[in-house]
# Entry
Amino acid sequence: MTELPREQQRFLSHTKAEGDHLLWCGSVDGDGYGLFSVDGKTRRAARVSYALFKDTPLNPDWDVFRLCGHRACVAAAHLLAIPKWLRRGMPRRRRRSGVAVV
Ligand SMILES: [Zn+2]
# Structure
């Protein structure tokens, strides 16, 4: 197995695998969502996981959803980022502007 970058190793040291899920064992906020500190700032663990393992910068205006519905899960494969503005539009009828989710 190739050596993971240090930040990824540090992140994974706070997790444990459970089936397909990667459960967060570090500190959590009042709602039970994982917290991880990066560069002295406390971030949501799922957002950090997305940025670290998807190899994609995460736009701060985007929300990260867990496709598996497991609140403690930070498995990158179970995370989906969508823009907040799109999320607001989702429950209602589709907007005409032809939005592509990639
Ligand atoms: Zn999961």
Summary: The chain is about 20% helix and 25% strand.
